[in-house]
Design brief:
The chain is built from 13 helices and 14 strands.
Length: 384
């Protein structure tokens, strides 16, 4: 099968030519002084992208590694945790917490909705023993956004630390760990940064380190160990294991690009691409998956699949007939997603996604207004 002409998935996303070139840079010894200098420069750029003053860790593995490592570092058997479940990844984190022996209190909302901060406040008041609050900021499979800016201060006032999945948030939408009083934030480069998928970016606050230090279950001498990174790298200047030189090259390049653009400009670009996609989808005559546009993420547009079809049928047709790769809902429901992240939150990409989806549905027997959909998407993208 030939490569897709357009990858409009929910990640990994298309990389820029600069990032691709960086990924192909010569592999050097990880203790070469030149690489150490570059590694520290990359850390500084990632911290600038996060807008965080907390310690930064670059763990060698896709962000699921960082999410597991953060939980294992913090959670001990019997610890009371509050898990906020509004989608596939939020629900999955609750399963992890239970597997690690935590006593889990959970707020569940449908996968087309977002968590209400008042429910979080009530749960914290009813269960003063809660020490950890776990939440997903941008639930990519369902295209929804949780109000982490409000949840963070509630947890901090209660004395609990937060574990925040911001994998698809960083670089594409406002995210402010310090102002929002967040503790452990885990991101991936392969979403709105259009970077390599093999590296985790993580910020860790002092409150989180204090809790980890009190946890006898926190991994040591392990690929999952945050303490190894703190003691060996942050304090001792030695890597716990060999980092992927290529991924560091790629991460630095994609961070350089978004910082050169300006974070606020990047947020605005992603927001415009999301509006274009949403307006196009609505003009086609389709239903957006989230219950309200107020809770929609700007990194991907989730669309309910019309009755009588499955997401697999639709995605397969879009890919095979029109060369456009879009995503399913990963268990969130019968939906498809058009991604607009990083490179693909530019120019005509959202229009291509709307056009390919609309034409495919016509091919599959669904009545949509293709012309209106394309025109609506173009109208937004034409705005300065």
């Amino acid at each position: 099968m030939k490569p897709a002409d357009f990858t409009l998935s929910a990640g990994p996303t298309t990389c820029s030519s600069k990032t691709l070139a960086a990924l192909g840079s010569p592999i050097v010894y990880h203790y070469d002084p030149m690489f150490i200098e570059q590694y520290k420069a990359t850390e500084a750029k990632v911290k600038a992208v996060f807008r965080s003053s907390s310690d930064l860790l670059l763990m060698q593995g896709e962000a699921v590694l960082g999410l597991e490592a953060a939980g294992r570092a913090v959670v001990r058997p019997g610890m009371a945790c509050l898990n906020l479940s509004s989608g596939v990844f939020g629900k999955g984190y609750g399963d992890w917490l239970r597997a690690w022996g935590a006593t889990v209190h959970e707020i569940d909302v449908p996968y087309d909705d977002a968590v209400d901060p008042s429910d979080v406040e009530r749960a914290l008041e009813e269960h003063p023993e809660i020490e950890v609050v776990a939440v997903v900021h941008s639930e990519t499979p369902s295209g929804t956004l949780n109000p982490v800016a409000e949840i963070g201060p509630l947890a901090k006032a209660h004395g609990a630390i937060t574990i925040v999945d911001c994998v698809s948030s960083i670089g594409g939408m406002p995210f402010d760990p310090d102002a929002w009083q967040l503790d452990i934030c885990i991101a991936g480069a392969q979403k709105c940064l259009s970077g390599p998928p093999g590296i985790t970016m993580m910020t860790v606050s002092q409150d989180a380190w204090d809790l980890i230090a009190r946890n006898p279950e926190a991994p040591r001498y392990s690929f999952l160990s945050l303490l190894d990174w703190k003691i060996q790298w942050l304090e001792g200047g030695k890597f716990p294991f060999t980092p992927s030189v290529a991924d560091v090259h790629g991460l630095e390049a994609c961070c350089e690009e978004v910082l050169a653009e300006g974070l606020d400009n990047s947020f605005a670009r992603h927001s415009r691409a999301a509006r274009a996609c949403r307006e196009g989808v609505k003009a086609l005559g389709l239903r957006l998956w989230p219950r309200s546009e107020d809770i929609m993420s700007t990194c991907t547009t989730a669309i309910a699949v019309p009755d009588g079809l499955t997401d697999i049928q639709v995605r397969t047709h879009v890919r095979e007939r029109y060369g456009v790769m879009i995503s399913g809902g990963q268990g969130a429901g019968n939906l498809v997603r058009i991604g607009h992240m990083g490179v693909t939150a530019n120019t005509m990409y959202p229009v291509v996604g709307v056009a390919a989806l609309g034409r495919s549905l016509l091919d599959l027997g669904v009545s949509v207004d293709l012309g209106a959909g394309v025109e609506a998407a173009l109208a937004v993208m034409s705005q300065a």
